[in-house]
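cron nightly-structures :: item 1 of 1
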Amino acid sequence: MARSGNAPPGTLRAFMAGLLMLIAGMSVAAEPAAKPIKSAFIPAEASWIFVAHPKMVFELPATEMAPSEVVSAAGIKELGFDPTQLEELVAFGTLPGKNGDPSFGAVARFSEPPTLASLKAKLLKDAKETTRDDGNVAFQLAGPNAPSLVVIDSKTLVIGMPGFLEKMLAVRTADKKVVALLAQFDEETQLGLIVGFDAMRDDLTKLLQGAPPLPGPLEELKKLPSLLAWSKLEFDLEESLKVSLVSEAHDEPSAKSAEKILRDGLAFGKQMALSSMAQNAGSIDPVEQAGIRYGKRLADLIFKQLDPKRDAEQVSIEVDTHSSVATVGVMSALLLPAIQSARQAAARASGQ
């Protein structure tokens, strides 16, 4: 006869497995994926995009000592809005090239809508106000080739250079290249800049060809735009300042070439820094000698952090300033000049 009050072992295991899956599902649901950055108003010719979330940055524990009150008051006084309430800023543009001067545009989204009266009294004080055919209010800032600002809604402002602004407002479906660049960021990105080389390779190559030659292996850096599809610089202040530079090449051989160029350039920079320190190597002053030894040790630590790493088509450099390198570097920058000043004062006093 079957035992009463006790579930079969198989049933119990199935129940426990289902319970664990439910808990896991709830955990995943509790942390939804970050939303992508909106691609509205970014025209196809944009070759670089800058993303910032100032409000989020000012609310981070790592920035609690930042003078947010001063930034807020100064923004309201000088611009007519509170920069600490700027939810998202997306700026973008082009390099100067065959089509003329560089173009620039930006979209500002606020958590708390700034009053139009405040903007008109400060930022738009001398601007000419008009009403567009689409019903949006526009302001032409004073000055030759000055940008114009359009109020999209109470929380969204769009600003752009003459000609470029009309292209921004005409965007209905974002270009796939723009979408690909913007996909490298999301709403949790604190500060980030990405440059797409495909759209500006010819213009950038001409600019670099006309630039003065660089010393040693640094001249090879001019080849990077021909090897890379894009480069992204991102700042993360969640716990400490973390800086990452990630570049994606067209293929793995190009990534290997880019990695070598970066590594050779950094090695040359280290060599130049050590050569500069060696100029005082003949000093018999113990403090100067200690400073030289410290400089060499610090150079080893810093350039070790900057060493590029490659993963298939991507080459990256990451620096975490939470390390002792940054802390000791700042302390030394403050301490060594004080020691030098004290020595000079003592020398002057002894000479009197």
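cron nightly-structures :: done
The first helix runs from residue 9 to 30.
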